[in-house]
Amino acid sequence: MKEFSQTKILPFSQIQMFELVADIANYPDFLPWCLAARITKTTQLEKNKQELNADLIIGFQLYKEKFTSKVILTPNERIDVNYIKGPFKKMDNFWHFKALKNNQCEVHFEMTFEFDNFIFKKLSDLFFEETAIKMIDSFEKRAHSLYK
Questions:
Q1: What domains sit in the chain, N to C, each tagged with a CATH number?
Q2: Is-contact 103 13, C-beta < 8 A?
């Protein structure tokens, strides 16, 4: 199993960054390898929390797969993503957003990831960290295009 963690301080507000990451339906517009996204279920939880079920279709070259995750949104604070079904053995992540001075935000991201398929598992061993960094960079670039 692979694990990745990164913290960045960005020149955007905590609310802006939370809303950007929570906007799953627009992931195909800016996330590499995300071909489609849709929310299949929304449930209101306590304290303004929401639980979503989201389907993403990811692909590169000849490979294309759909996976489903449960997403818990704690407004402006954190987003927890837990894998439900698809081509992975495990794929969980969380985002934590902390407001800083001067309308900045500390964004902390953690991910654990493992393919069920032996071949894809070996490939992910080679490209996991590079892929995770590219994904985080894509969110940062999207924030710049939306908020600056």
A1: 2-147 (3.30.530.20)
A2: yes
